[in-house]
Amino acid sequence: MGNQLVFKNWGTPFMGLFVLVMSVIFLTTFGRSTHLACGAEERYCELTRSAPFGIHESTEGRYPLEEIQQATLGESRNSDGDRTYSANLQLDDGSVDILGYSRSGRSGVQSIVDEVNTGLDDVRQGGDFHMSHQVTFGLWMPLAMSALGLYLLLFQRNVVALWLPPGVDQLQVAERRWWQPGSPGKIRDIPLQDISRVAVETTWSRSQRSGHSKPAHRPVIYLKSGESIPLTRTRRSGQGAFRRQEQVRRFLEQGGASLDDEPA
After folding, report:
1. Are 3-9+154-254 and 32-134 in the same CATH fold?
2. CATH class, 3-9+154-254 region
3. CATH classification (class only), 32-134
4. What is the pLDDT of residues 103-147, one digit of tens each?
5. What average pLDDT does the segment 142-167 reach?
6. What are 43-74's pLDDT values in tens digits?
């Protein structure tokens, strides 16, 4: 069996797991729905809120029809000075926030206010009224986050194995996922004479908080054709990429590769 060098990048699956956890928190926080039911026979309106998929439902209150005046549009400003709007149920002794949150779009909240007022008129004339409102943003955003989290956790190839088969002057580069220990994954054969050097590829990104540029590195194998083969899919700050570069360089030289010097 030939020499082997394995690199595992656990940052990618851990990031996927973090995104999945955040999507669940986002879903349970913002994915709730509001229900307002009023009946002429019962003579009251019941306001309830439920978590996604019916996990939990809570009754916000029951309000006698005689104490309900109308639904109104509330306006306020957030910390940035932008206007936000809420739908409120006006009672004889105060008001109740129907949705439980404020929105930046006036027309959408106004349509809910109009719907509630029309329903209250129908109830006072002997009918029934039921309204359900779902925060669509609170559903599709967590779903998109979950898809991204699953991709990072399960489908990104985060393990890179370098193998020098005995008796063959070539390097095998295999990429696989962390949960496929018995699978060779995606394999590429590279003749040792085609390898030019091992280097660290650096990119710079500007931090929005400090305004300063920060470097991020990853080790790369350069071929004589000019092609580069990254040994990790992600870039990181710190000295880890330089340590891996030195490991790969020694590994290839011990296997018989003749590498060019690092350009100044």
Report:
1. yes
2. mainly beta
3. mainly beta
4. 888 999 999 999 999 999 999 999 999 999 877 666 788 889 999
5. 91
6. 999 999 887 765 667 888 999 999 999 999 99
> Which residues is 176 bridged to in the sheet?
159
Can you read off the two tokens belonging to residue 94? 């105060």
User: Phi then psi for 79, rounded to 5 degrees?
Assistant: -65, -25
Q: Which of 118, 113, 130, 48 is nearest to 74 (CA)?
A: 113
Q: Apex CA 98: angle with CA 73 and CA 106, to 5°?
A: 35
Residue carrying structure tokens 């926030």: 97
In this prediction the pTM is 0.66
The residue ranges of every structural domain in the chain are 3-9+154-254, 32-134
The answer, yes or no, to whether residue 193 has pLDDT greater than 60, is: yes
Percentage helix, strand, coil, to 5, in the chain? 30, 40, 30
Q: Is the dihedral of CA 14, 19, 25, 27 positive or negative?
A: negative
The rounded radius of gyration (Å) of the Cα atoms in the chain is 30
Of 181, 192, 187, 180, the C-alpha closest to 254 is 192
Tokens of 61: 């209150």
Measure the N-to-C terminal CA separation of the chain; round to a whole number of Å.
37
Distance CA(238)–CA(132), nearest Å, equals 52
Angle at the Cα of 74 from the Cα atoms of 35 and 100, rounded to 5 degrees: 35
pLDDT at 92: 94
